């Protein structure tokens, strides 16, 4: 992609109410993350993660919420596997808690942690559900952060060792492996804006973290593939990236440049090294006063750009940006504040377009998903794609034994229709995972926001399938959308 061509054309998606069918063999699933659902943060020797430390820091997480008890999945995983089975889903994407395996991120390996994920995978397979583990969904062992975290090159090598431990345990039963979830969040929200753990506000460190996360991915992928040589099960290894569509608010030079800059920081800083073996030159120019990319060593980009078997795409909303506030009403734009994740482009603002929003304040526009998928298929032809997260938070109300969340159902339908339109246009989209199976701990927002297609009462741990979950189960069973609900 050139720096001028920042978005793909938006094409018409399926007409509302029309029946659609997905291809035979399309993977249907739901997704979760270890720290968000497991709870039991001190059980059986589990070490503290950066999120445990972040939660314990006053003012960092809404209401002082922590990762306990979350959804108590550590003790209730069989109940949750039954939910996945009863919804008719063929796949379940979960993440493995590194501190539950290695409390210090290296050295000691906890048998109890191995046993938990061993039993989880067996339970999934017994229920006819394909396990899709993600090795890292943000819960870095605190001991590694004490040594520099993702700004320390050594963390990449420790991650590869941990990946080897998990593949040795599960590789006889697991085919689909994801290394990292959303490295943009880990790097820019964790090390630049500080709104996520570890809460650092060091722009240069965020760029170093990007590279070491990608290096960790490459080293882990190589470890898994090397261990699998000669085995009966060939692993399919990918990475999960929150690729999005960046749109200029107007066609002004300032807004076009803002879109180019944000596209580089949100998208191309990851896709270009992964798929083309280089960091974008325009990005490096944008951040030249912050970093000279001296953390890139000889051979790194070859490791990072080893062929991917798949890429997971997490999508929630497109983003409109402007290069200045000139001519904008203050009610129509967001300012990042003193500490921005937009390293080197802190002047860029996000513009609201007056569309309906989720409880997160994210504008709803499923054409952004179509754009995102079409752009990836155009820029990186032949790459198998999976939507590994897509969903919405709304303020749900429990009525008796039901949660009537029509807004979430409509969100899911509009995005499934966009996904289907992308497939019809030739995008190699192979599967869809709803986010999330369960209401859960929503990071710095604590338990205030609910994304689940299953409601969780955090006091009683009672699970209630929402209307959106029942609807999604029907879609899965039918292989598509039969018409208006």
Describe it.
Helix 7 runs parallel beside helix 9 and helix 14 runs parallel beside helix 15. The two termini are 39 Å apart. This protein has 485 residues and is α/β, with parallel strands linked by helices. It is built from 15 helices and 18 strands. One of its GO terms (molecular function) is beta-glucosidase activity. One of its GO terms (biological process) is cellulose catabolic process. This is Beta-glucosidase.
Describe the secondary structure blueprint for this structure:
Blueprint: E1 20-21, E2 27-31, H1 34-37, H2 50-55, H3 73-86, E3 91-95, H4 98-101, H5 111-126, E4 130-136, H6 142-146, H7 153-170, E5 176-181, H8 183-191, H9 203-228, E6 236-241, E7 246-248, H10 253-276, H11 281-286, H12 300-304, E8 310-314, E9 319-322, E10 333-334, E11 349-351, H13 367-379, E12 385-389, E13 398-399, E14 402-403, H14 406-424, E15 429-435, E16 454-457, E17 462-465, H15 467-478, E18 480-481
Parallel strand pairs: 2-3, 2-15, 3-4, 4-5, 5-6, 6-8, 7-9, 8-12, 12-15
Antiparallel strand pairs: 1-18, 9-11, 10-11, 13-14, 16-17
Helix pairs in contact: 3-5, 7-9, 8-9, 13-14, 14-15
Query: How do the strands line up in the largest sheet?
Result: 2-3-4-5-6-8-12-15
Number of strands: 18
**What is the global morphology?**
globular
The level of helicity is 25-40%
- Output mean pLDDT: 95
How many structurally independent domains? 1
Biggest sheet statistics: 8 strands, parallel, barrel
CATH fold-level assignment: TIM Barrel
Q: In CATH terms, what is the architecture?
A: Alpha-Beta Barrel
Which CATH first-tier class would you pick? Alpha Beta
Whole-angstrom Rg: 21 Å
Low-confidence stretches: 1-13
User: Which class of secondary structure composition applies to the elements?
Assistant: alpha/beta
Number of helices, where a helix is a run of at least 4 consecutive DSSP H or I residues: 15
Regarding quaternary structure, how should these chains be classified? single chain
Family: Belongs to the glycosyl hydrolase 1 family.
Active site: 182 (proton donor), 389 (nucleophile)
Keywords: Carbohydrate metabolism, Cellulose degradation, Glycosidase, Hydrolase, Polysaccharide degradation
GO molecular function: beta-glucosidase activity
